[in-house]
Write a structure and sequence with these properties.
single chain; about 140 residues; alpha+beta; 3-stranded antiparallel β-sheet; 3 strands
Length: about 140
């Protein structure tokens, strides 16, 4: 069985675009993902990881320990490796909010449109490959 995880960005009113990034994997791989992520968190002590905060050195990433380039590089490499190892396929979508608002009334928000498009694409890939999801080229 496959499970989908999506995260959005651009939810604040000043954002011109709505973005959704999604990964698909098996239930077993998501269990291993969580175990690996928790192990990385124990090693690096990042608590909740938000990429925007990491890049901007805000929130917990404003602490002195996070100013160390080696620690930052080690952490991001570890987390990216977990994603590459555990996710079967990843995809994202972007919608310009003004264009969405001007043209569409349904689904109720741009994130719904992105989600429906991504799930449809994933289902087509899965069906055309006999129920198997293949890793994208990296």
């Amino acid at each position: 069985m496959f499970t989908l995880y999506c995260d959005d960005s651009g939810t604040h009113p000043k954002s011109d675009v709505a973005v959704a990034g999604c990964y698909v994997s098996t239930v077993e791989q998501w269990t291993e993902f969580r175990r690996n992520w928790d192990e990385a968190n124990l090693r690096e002590n990042f608590s909740v990881f938000h990429m925007a905060d990491f890049v901007a050195k805000q929130e917990q990433f404003s602490a002195q320990e996070w100013q160390d380039k080696a620690k930052r590089d080690r952490t991001i490499r570890a987390l990216l490796n977990i994603i590459k190892t555990r996710a079967k396929i990843g995809f994202a979508g972007v919608v310009e909010k003004s264009a969405y608002d001007a043209e569409l009334a349904f689904p109720a928000c741009p994130y719904s449109a992105i989600f429906v498009a991504n799930v449809s694409t994933t289902a087509m890939v899965c069906i055309s490959s006999g129920g198997k999801l293949y890793r994208p080229c990296r």
